[in-house]
Amino acid sequence: MKKNIILWLAVSAVVMLMFPWLAVTFVKDDAGMAVCFLLFFVVNPLYSAIIGVFAGKDIRHLWSLPVISVALFLIGTWIFFDMGETAFILYAVVYLVLGIVTMLISMFIGKKAQSQ
Fold first, then answer.
1. How many angstroms separate the CA atoms of 74 and 112, rounded?
2. Which of 14, 57, 79, 99 has the most CB atoms within 10 Å of its CB?
3. Which residues contact 67 (CB under 8 A, 6 or more apart)?
4. How far apart are CA 75 and CA 38, in angstroms?
5. Rounded to an integer, what distance in angstroms lies between the CA atom of residue 82 and that of residue 89?
6. Do 70 and 21 form a contact (C-beta atoms < 8 A)?
7. Are 103 and 63 contacting, i.e. CB atoms less than 8 angstroms apart?
8. What's the rounded Cα separation, in Å, for the pair 104 and 110?
9. How confident is residue 1, by pLDDT bands cut at 50, 70 and 90?
10. Dihedrals φ, ψ of 58, to 5°?
11. Percent of all residues in the chain with a pLDDT value above 90, rounded to a whole number
């Protein structure tokens, strides 16, 4: 169990901290904006859903993974884009809701499959 948590925390750090850094450092001008749109509207929501599904398999121990992922997102965006920008809080809330909803759906599907 601890190996899974450490693995998901490392993946969260890469997705939420390393990807924005890579976008800011290596991609310039309009292409950088396109990469940021991909991060904010495709990669991060998809990752939030995936981590929510994984956390739903053992919600008692893994409930914090979506929260940690969102915290890392806020840290990464505030460091690499604009410190204290409130628009990123809105993105974080959406990612958190997405992660929690998928976590609960995954939990209910898992319970239903076990009862049959």
1. 35
2. 99
3. 96, 99
4. 18
5. 12
6. no
7. yes
8. 10
9. low
10. -145, 75
11. 38
Which is more confidently placed, 55 or 112? Answer: 55
The total of other beta-carbon atoms located within 10 Å of residue 16's CB is 26
Tokens 């850094």 correspond to 21
* Residue 42 structure tokens: 């495709």
CB under 8 A, 24+ apart: contacts of 7-12: 8/51, 8/54, 8/62, 8/65, 9/65, 9/68, 12/47, 12/51, 12/65, 12/68, 12/69, 12/72
Q: Is the separation of the CB atoms in 68 and 6 below 8 Å?
A: no
Instruction: Confirm if 22 and 69 have CB atoms less than 8 A apart.
Output: no
Chain mean pLDDT for the chain: 88
